[in-house]
C-alpha cells in the first residue's frame, strides 16, 4: 500500500513537472512571439542589401591606384566565392548551415551545457544569427540580445535562400585591417584575389571572424596560426580535405602583406585629384556607393614618371651633401632593450618608398652597420658610404657625425655583377630630400593626362606641385614671346643686336640692365640662335620691338593667367607665374599645330552596378574652332625648339634619347630658385619642375638642364619607346629665305630683317616701362621673402639664364 502511494505521488509529481514545463515553454513561446518578435526591426537591410563599397580610382588600363572609404569591401557574389573558402567558413562557423532553420539546436544544447558549467562563454551563433547581429545588434553576450538574434534569424531564414544568407555573411563580416568581407581581407592580408589564395590562407581567414583582434594574422600571428590549425582539422574531419591537402596546408608558411593595400602603381596625387572631383559631385555618397573612376593615366608611363622623379630628386640631393642623421638615441646595453628602443624610435619615422629608416649600431670610415625595424643587421661599405663620408671623418661636427644611435635612411641599389648576367643588391646611406619636384605629361592632341607626379612623396607632402604651385617659369616662357614676334612679321632669321642694354627702371631714376648669364655679348644673333641658346638681352629687345602690351595679351592665347604676368619687359624672362600643368597645356599648342587643349583626367565614372554616371566624350582633334595660333607659327616655333634639343641648352636630351623629333625649352629662374624643362615628341607633352617649397637657390651650378630635364628624359625614354619619330610637314605659306623660314607674305621685305641694329628705338607708348615693378617684383632687387607654399607668390627673375642649362 505504501509502495503504491509512493508511486502515485511520483507520477503526480512528474505530471505536474511536465505540465509546469509545458506552461513555461508556452509562456516563453508566447513571450517570444508576442513581445520579442514584434519588437525586432524589419530586415529590409538584408533583403535589399546595399553594401558600402568604397570609391576606387583606376588607370586607363584598369589598374587600381586609389581607394577611399572607411570600410574596405569588395562585394563578391556567392557563385564567385571559391568552394574551398565556403567549406572553410562552414567547417568552423556553422557545419549544419544548410540543414537548420536559422538556429542549430544541437550546437545550442552543447553551448548551454558549457555555459551552465562555467558562465556564458559559448554563444552557438549560426551564420544566420551572425548576419542578424552584424546588421542590427551588438556583440554583447546578453540573454535579451540573444533572443532578438534568434528572432531575427528566423525572419531572415524565412525571407532569403541559404546561398543569399551566406553571401551576406561573407561580404559583411569584419575581418580586421579595416576589411569587411573575405574578398577584401584576401587583399588586405595576402595582397591577392580570393580565388588566388591557397587552402592554408583560406583556413587562416576563416579563423578570423570569431575574434578579429586576437586572431588577426598581421597583429597576432601565433593566435592566428593556432586558429588556422583548428579550421584545418575540422575541414579534414568533415571530408573537405584529404590527408595530402591537410598535411600540405599545415606545413605551408604564411606570408602576410606588409600593408593593408598595396596599389600596383604609385599615383597618389592622381587618385587625390580624382577623389576631389567625385566628392564635389556626390559628397559623402562617393565613399559608399561603389563608384569607380577611370582616369586617362597610363600605368607604364605613370610608373616611369614616378621612378624618374624620385631618382633624379635623390641624385640632386646626393650632389648637395649630407645634412646629418634624422635624430640620435641612446642604445641600451641589453640586447632586448636595445631592440625595443630601436623599434620604438623607427615607428616614429615617416615612411617613404624605398628609403628605410634604420639605427646605426657601429660606424667607421669603411663600414656602417645598421639595424632595421625588423631587427635585421645590414652592413654598408664602399660606394654606399659616399654621401656620408664627411660624417665619418674624425673631425666631423657632432650634428652630422655618424655614431651608434644615429637614425639614418638606407636605400637598395641594383648593380650588374661582373662577368655575370645577374644583378647584385647593395645598400647605400641616403636621406629624405628637402627639395620638391613635379612632373606632368599630357596628350598634345586631346589634353588627356598620361602621367602626373605632384611631389617627391605624397605621404610626406600632399601639396600637388603640378596643379597648385605657381612658380616663375624663367626662360621656359620665351617661346611664347618668339611666337608673338612671328605674328608681327619677324622670322627665325631676323637679326637681333646682342649688346649691353640699359633702360630707365621707373624707380627714382634707376636703370635696368638685363644680362646674359655668362656676361658676354655676341653682337648680331639670329632670332633662332637667341632662343636656342636662351639669350636674355636679345629676348628683351624682341619684346620691346613687338611692344609689351601686345606680348602680354598674346600669352592669353595659350591659357596663361595674364594677371600673374607683369606687364613690363621682365615678362620676357619669365618673371610671371605658371603651374606645370598650365605650362604643359601651353606647349601642347606648339606640339599639335596651333590648337588649344584642355587637360582632363577623368574618362569615365560608374556606380557599384556598373552604370555609367559620367563619360568624357573624346575631344575633337585638330578642330579649327579651337585654333589659337597659325599653323605656320606653330611650325616655326617647333623648328626652333627642336634646335634647342639638338644644339642648344637642351642638347643633352637628343644625345640621351637618340631621336631627332624632340622639341623643348629649359628654364632657370633668378638665383636658380626654379628649374624647368618643357618639351614634347610623339604627341606627348611633358613638363618637369624642381625647387624648394620655401624658395631658395638650388645651387650656383644647377640649371633647368641639370635639374628638370633628366626627369623629362627618363620619362620620355619609356613614353616614346613604341612611338616612331615624326617630322612635321612644311605648311602652306612658309618659304625659305636667308637659310631660314619666313611667312610668304613677308618674303623679300626688309622691314623685319633686324632689331635694334643701328640705334635704340624710342620706348613704345603702351603704358609699360621696362623696369616698372610688376607682380614678380622690382627689377634689380633681390626677391622678396617667400610666402607659405600654399600662398606662394612668384619671385622676381633677374634674367640669369645659363647657356649650359638655361
UniProtKB/TrEMBL annotation:
Keyword set includes Transcription: no
Membrane topology of the entry: Single-pass type II membrane protein
EC number: 2.4.99.28, 3.4.16.4
Reactions the enzyme catalyzes: [GlcNAc-(1->4)-Mur2Ac(oyl-L-Ala-gamma-D-Glu-L-Lys-D-Ala-D-Ala)](n)-di-trans,octa-cis-undecaprenyl diphosphate + beta-D-GlcNAc-(1->4)-Mur2Ac(oyl-L-Ala-gamma-D-Glu-L-Lys-D-Ala-D-Ala)-di-trans,octa-cis-undecaprenyl diphosphate = [GlcNAc-(1->4)-Mur2Ac(oyl-L-Ala-gamma-D-Glu-L-Lys-D-Ala-D-Ala)](n+1)-di-trans,octa-cis-undecaprenyl diphosphate + di-trans,octa-cis-undecaprenyl diphosphate + H(+); Preferential cleavage: (Ac)2-L-Lys-D-Ala-|-D-Ala. Also transpeptidation of peptidyl-alanyl moieties that are N-acyl substituents of D-alanine
Pathway membership: Cell wall biogenesis; peptidoglycan biosynthesis
Main location per the UniProt record: membrane
Subcellular locations according to the entry: Cell inner membrane
Keywords attached to this entry: Antibiotic resistance, Carboxypeptidase, Cell inner membrane, Cell membrane, Cell shape, Cell wall biogenesis/degradation, Glycosyltransferase, Hydrolase, Membrane, Multifunctional enzyme, Peptidoglycan synthesis, Protease, Signal-anchor, Transferase, Transmembrane, Transmembrane helix
Domain Penicillin-binding protein transpeptidase: 438-681
Database matches in Gene3D superfamilies: Biosynthetic peptidoglycan transglycosylase-like (1.10.3810.10), DD-peptidase/beta-lactamase superfamily (3.40.710.10)
Family annotation (NCBIfam families): PBP_1a_fam
Family to which the UniProt record says this protein belongs: In the C-terminal section; belongs to the transpeptidase family.
Protein name, UniProt field: Penicillin-binding protein 1A
Organism this protein belongs to: Massilia violaceinigra
Amino acid at each position: 500500500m505504501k509502495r503504491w502511494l509512493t508511486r502515485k505521488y511520483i507520477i503526480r509529481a512528474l505530471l505536474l513537472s511536465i505540465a509546469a514545463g509545458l506552461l513555461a515553454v508556452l509562456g516563453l513561446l508566447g513571450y517570444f512571439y508576442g513581445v520579442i518578435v514584434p519588437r525586432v526591426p524589419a530586415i529590409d537591410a538584408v533583403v535589399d542589401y546595399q553594401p558600402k563599397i568604397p570609391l576606387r580610382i583606376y588607370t586607363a588600363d584598369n589598374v587600381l591606384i586609389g581607394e577611399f572609404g572607411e570600410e574596405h569591401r569588395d562585394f563578391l557574389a556567392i557563385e564567385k566565392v571559391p568552394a574551398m573558402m565556403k567549406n572553410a567558413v562552414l567547417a568552423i562557423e556553422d557545419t549544419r548551415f544548410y540543414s537548420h532553420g536559422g538556429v542549430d539546436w544541437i550546437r545550442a544544447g552543447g553551448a548551454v551545457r558549457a555555459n551552465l558549467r562555467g558562465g556564458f562563454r559559448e554563444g552557438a551563433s549560426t551564420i544566420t544569427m551572425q548576419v542578424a547581429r552584424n546588421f542590427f545588434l551588438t556583440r554583447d553576450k546578453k540573454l535579451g540580445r540573444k533572443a532578438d538574434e534568434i528572432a531575427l534569424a528566423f525572419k531572415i531564414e524565412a525571407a532569403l535562400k541559404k546561398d543569399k544568407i551566406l553571401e551576406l555573411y561573407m561580404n559583411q563580416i569584419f575581418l580586421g585591417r579595416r576589411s569587411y568581407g573575405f574578398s577584401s581581407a584576401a587583399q588586405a592580408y595576402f595582397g591577392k584575389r580570393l580565388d588566388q589564395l591557397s587552402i592554408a590562407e583560406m583556413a587562416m581567414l576563416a579563423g578570423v571572424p570569431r575574434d578579429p583582434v586576437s586572431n588577426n594574422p598581421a597583429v597576432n600571428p601565433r593566435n592566428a596560426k593556432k586558429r588556422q590549425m583548428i579550421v584545418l582539422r575540422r575541414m579534414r574531419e568533415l571530408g573537405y580535405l584529404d590527408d595530402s591537402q591537410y598535411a600540405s596546408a599545415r606545413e605551408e608558411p604564411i606570408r602576410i602583406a606588409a600593408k593593408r593595400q598595396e596599389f600596383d602603381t604609385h599615383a597618389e596625387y592622381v587618385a587625390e585629384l580624382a577623389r576631389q572631383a567625385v566628392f564635389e559631385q556626390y559628397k559623402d555618397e562617393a565613399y559608399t556607393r561603389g563608384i569607380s573612376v577611370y582616369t586617362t593615366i597610363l600605368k607604364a608611363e605613370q610608373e616611369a614618371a614616378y621612378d624618374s622623379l624620385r631618382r633624379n630628386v635623390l641624385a640632386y640631393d646626393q650632389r648637395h651633401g649630407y645634412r646629418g642623421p634624422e635624430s640620435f638615441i641612446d642604445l641600451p646595453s641589453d640586447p632586448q632593450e636595445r631592440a625595443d628602443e630601436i623599434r620604438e624610435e623607427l615607428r616614429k619615422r615617416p615612411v617613404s618608398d624605398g628609403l628605410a629608416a634604420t639605427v646605426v649600431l657601429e660606424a667607421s670610415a669603411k663600414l656602417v652597420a645598421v639595424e632595421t625595424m625588423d631587427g635585421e643587421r645590414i652592413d654598408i661599405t664602399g660606394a654606399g658610404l659616399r654621401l656620408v663620408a664627411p660624417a665619418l671623418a674624425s673631425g666631423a661636427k657632432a650634428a652630422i657625425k655618424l655614431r651608434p644611435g644615429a637614425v639614418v635612411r638606407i636605400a637598395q641599389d641594383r648593380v650588374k655583377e661582373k662577368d655575370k648576367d645577374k644583378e647584385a643588391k647593395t645598400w647605400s646611406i641616403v636621406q629624405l630630400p628637402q627639395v620638391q619636384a613635379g612632373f606632368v605629361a599630357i596628350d598634345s592632341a586631346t589634353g588627356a593626362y598620361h602621367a602626373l607626379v605632384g611631389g617627391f612623396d605624397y605621404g610626406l607632402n600632399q601639396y600637388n606641385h603640378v596643379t597648385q604651385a605657381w612658380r616663375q617659369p624663367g626662360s621656359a616662357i620665351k617661346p611664347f614671346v618668339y611666337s608673338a614676334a612671328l605674328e608681327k612679321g619677324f622670322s627665325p632669321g631676323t637679326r637681333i643686336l646682342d649688346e649691353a642694354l640699359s633702360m630707365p627702371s621707373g624707380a627714382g631714376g634707376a636703370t635696368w640692365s638685363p644680362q646674359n648669364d655668362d656676361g658676354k655679348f655676341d653682337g648680331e644673333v639670329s632670332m633662332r640662335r637667341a632662343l636656342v641658346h636662351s639669350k636674355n638681352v636679345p629676348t628683351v629687345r624682341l619684346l620691346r620691338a613687338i611692344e609689351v602690351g601686345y606680348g602680354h595679351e598674346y600669352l592669353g592665347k595659350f591659357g596663361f593667367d595674364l594677371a600673374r604676368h607683369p606687364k613690363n619687359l621682365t615678362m620676357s624672362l619669365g618673371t610671371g607665374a605658371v603651374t606645370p600643368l598650365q605650362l604643359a597645356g601651353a606647349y601642347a599648342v606648339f606640339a599639335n599645330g596651333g590648337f588649344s587643349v584642355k587637360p582632363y583626367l577623368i574618362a569615365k565614372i560608374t556606380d557599384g552596378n556598373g552604370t555609367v554616371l559620367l563619360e568624357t566624350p573624346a575631344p575633337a582633334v585638330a578642330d579649327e574652332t579651337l585654333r589659337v595660333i597659325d599653323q605656320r607659327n606653330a611650325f616655326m616655333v617647333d623648328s626652333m625648339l627642336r634646335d634647342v634639343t639638338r644644339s642648344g641648352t637642351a642638347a643633352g636630351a637628343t644625345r640621351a634619347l637618340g631621336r631627332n623629333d624632340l622639341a623643348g625649352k629649359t628654364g632657370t629662374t633668378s638665383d636658380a630658385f626654379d628649374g624647368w624643362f618643357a618639351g614634347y615628341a610623339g604627341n606627348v607633352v611633358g613638363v618637369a619642375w624642381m625647387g624648394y617649397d620655401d624658395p631658395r637657390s638650388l645651387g650656383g651650378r644647377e640649371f633647368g638642364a641639370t635639374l628638370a630635364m633628366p626627369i623629362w628624359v627618363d620619362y620620355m625614354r619609356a613614353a616614346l619607346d613604341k612611338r616612331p619619330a615624326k617630322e612635321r610637314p612644311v605648311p602652306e605659306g612658309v618659304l625659305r629665305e636667308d637659310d631660314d623660314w619666313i611667312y610668304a607674305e613677308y618674303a623679300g621685305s626688309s622691314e623685319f630683317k633686324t632689331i635694334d641694329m643701328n640705334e635704340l628705338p624710342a620706348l613704345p607708348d603702351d603704358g609699360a616701362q621696362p623696369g616698372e615693378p610688376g607682380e614678380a617684383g622690382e627689377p634689380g632687387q633681390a626677391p622678396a621673402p617667400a610666402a607659405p607654399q600654399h600662398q606662394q607668390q612668384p619671385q622676381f627673375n633677374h634674367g640669369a639664364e645659363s647657356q649650359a642649362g638655361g
